[in-house]
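Changelog excerpt

This revision adds worked examples to the README so contributors can see how folded entries look when concatenated. The first example is reproduced verbatim below.
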Amino acid sequence: MRVAIHQPNFLPWQGYFAKMAQADRFVLLDDAQFSRNNIINRVRILGPGAPRWLTVAVGGHLGDAIDAVRPADPAWAGRALSLLRNTYGRAAHFREAWPALEAWLAEAPAADLAAINAHLIERLAIHLDIATPLLRARELAIAGRSDDRLVSIVTALAPGGTYLSGRGGAGYQDPAKFAAAGLDLAYYDFAAPEYDQGVVPFQPGLSVVDALFHAGRAATIRMVRGS
């Protein structure tokens, strides 16, 4: 059994969902410390000719957990929808993608950033035909720091299983700790397939909604699940 663990990012890119599709369990690290100017409350979308940020302005204090951070503007969802409509209104698959995205954002919970992001991630995963169960770290109540906690989470969910990490994890994870716990450590790379965005050169690393608007749901599912 393969377990992947990731912070609940805001409308993540395709690679986030591609890793989810490769895992048997996906844990949202909703009680991790929030850091500003990160992709937890913002994501890049394709503006007129160049990427731009779609951001949920938040309030809170330094050191707060993600599930303790709240939107600073109660009307954040309406603002996000307005920007998405203005940005992608002429995209090839706008009519196909818009109703679902409009509904997901309109019904997003107002409780905290982790709840908002988890809601959107869950809806997008279902939309992309990904059946991997999503779990919340806060509910697992497994303590620890850095890769020690990752080892504990994977051990609890899949004894003798595999931790599926992003390639960036190689910079701070200690493979010996996973081996000592009887776990395998695997790294996953996602090479973003190119699709017609209406601009040249292709802009990688954008929110998955960019692919839904420009390439459509069926093509996005193939790109995510066929990676």
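The second example, added in the same revision:
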Amino acid sequence: MLASNPNAPEPNQRQRCYACFRPVDRCFCDRIPAVENKTHVVILQHFRERFHPFNTARILRLALQNSQMVVEGVEGLGNWFATQHVTANAALLYPGKDSQLLETLSESERPQQLVVLDGTWHHTKTLFRDIPKLQSLRKVRLAPAEPSRYGIRREPHVLFLSTLEATVAALRCLEPDTKGFDQLVAAFHFMVESQLAHPKSEGTVRRKLRPRAPLNIPKSLRQSLRDVVVFYAETAPHSGEPAEASETERAPAYWVAERLVTGERLERAIASTTPMTQSFLNHIDLTVLDFDNAISLDEFREQWNAFLRPTDTVAYYYSNCTRLMKFMGETNHPVVYLKAIQLHRGRKNGEIDTLLSDLEIVPTEARGKGRPGRRLSYSIALVQYLATCSLFATD
């Protein structure tokens, strides 16, 4: 009797390519280009990601010729990183308030070495928290113009990217003349689309939920948010009964706006002819000090019109902003009233915080002071959700 081969695959076990880690009949290694990147890329991978069949760092390592990947647990990565040489001009690709936007760096400010963390968002936060040397690095970040195309695994935020997407986007900023990035992204899309076409073949895969698209998403919010400015404004307090208030008294008193991709923000207090009462300040969660440097309405109008670019679309949720926009004069910019977008068939949209809760959307931190900053963050979260809907929903 012939002895059985202990290394032979079980009848129901599919053979894999151990480069891309896909089943042999779906190997796409021949699509992965060799990219001669100039910036040295160091990928620190949490050990639990090592054998995930859809880990994008593996594709990245195969493509980038000037890169290395280290796979360990938190302690092992910490020990390895503590003994390794890091260039003086190294940077960690990691979002945060003190992270520099890559697109704004001059050529002399660009890092020569880029450290990338690979794992779930929980894993990467743990790595950053528990490896002191990482915290000492300069941090850089991206400002994605559109949601991730990684439709296989769920991201914690609509504009969070896979490791491959984030690293390629960073390298495009750092070395725009390097060739091969388009082919690398195309290989990534091929992997995603192939898997989504055969969702039952991998029992452990969790497909990203594809929300039903609202019926009337404006074209300006579909897929790209590069030219979208979101704003919120507070109305000046009344001197008496609302019916007696003049149009001047009902002018904007506080305005906050943000351009989504770059994060550029305009936040101004606007001088009012009506005193700021304590009850009004409590209502909008601001203090009298926030109005110490208030500027005139004419000055703000000039600043607002200078802030907007010719290609911008202006978006807002709150109905009072429709009236307050009139104080800014005539505009040629497209305007999107978010509350009018039909998110539920046969039902009007109510308060935005309730709406976000129903949609299971968690806004990021406030984008300014007090109630204006919070309401701006709610509006931005909704815009990002709508962009995701239009990207992933089927017709």
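Reviewer comment on example two: Confidence is low (pLDDT under 50) at residues 1-13, 146-160, 200-213, 391-395. Residues 370-392 form the longest helix (23 residues).
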